[in-house]
Backbone:
């Protein structure tokens, strides 16, 4: 029964971290509408892997790794901020191609496109060191490991729950948004590209401003 509780706690933590609308959510929604649910889900899976990495660091008490991440927090924030601005500008300027062109491009690029989609959101997730602190707070507040006497078995169950909760969110989100994929025309997709591009770049600019205020 305790292990079931730990898994449920992990699922809740994974959902709490993944659900709030942020740059990764916007990127996944935009990619789902533009390229279909598979691309959107793989983008979300990259974020889920990043969340799982932070859960492992927190759950297994990898103090050295945690301190290393915190020690380079400013550099990671700087990299993450510029990456978000790059993604935002790239999305804003992205050309809207016809559905036939999209299908042909998908066949030509195949799995490499999906792996790149996953890798890009994984990079965005792990360059946000604040997520590590958020996991520590959630583990304690939701009855995870930080407030008790953890062992490797209980840590594994919580981490498993985090991975499942985060992955389930991205699967559900891209499945629902994917229902509109076929009905989105080029004009609407162009507006979505511009709107999401501005929003993602704004997130990146906010990260850089926040970093600058801490350093000054």
Residues:
């Amino acid at each position: 029964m305790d292990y079931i509780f730990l898994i449920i706690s992990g699922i809740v933590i994974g959902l709490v971290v993944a659900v709030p609308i942020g740059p990764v959510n916007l990127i996944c929604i935009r990619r789902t509408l533009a390229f279909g649910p598979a691309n959107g889900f793989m983008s979300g899976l990259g974020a889920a892997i990043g969340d799982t990495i932070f859960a492992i660091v927190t759950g297994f008490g990898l103090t050295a790794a945690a301190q290393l991440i915190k020690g380079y927090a400013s550099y990671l924030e700087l990299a993450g901020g510029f990456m978000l601005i790059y993604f935002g500008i790239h999305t804003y300027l992205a050309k809207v191609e016809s559905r036939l062109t999209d299908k042909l491009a998908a066949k030509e690029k195949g799995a490499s496109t999906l792996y790149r989609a996953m890798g890009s959101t994984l990079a965005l997730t792990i360059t946000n060191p604040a997520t590590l602190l958020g996991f520590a707070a959630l583990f304690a507040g939701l009855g995870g490991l930080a407030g008790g006497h953890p062992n490797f078995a209980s840590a594994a169950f919580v981490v498993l729950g985090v991975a499942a909760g985060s992955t389930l969110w991205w699967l559900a989100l891209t499945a629902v948004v994917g229902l509109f994929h076929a009905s989105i025309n080029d004009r609407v997709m162009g507006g979505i590209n511009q709107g999401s591009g501005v929003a993602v770049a704004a997130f990146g600019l906010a990260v850089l401003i926040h970093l600058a205020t801490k350093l000054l």
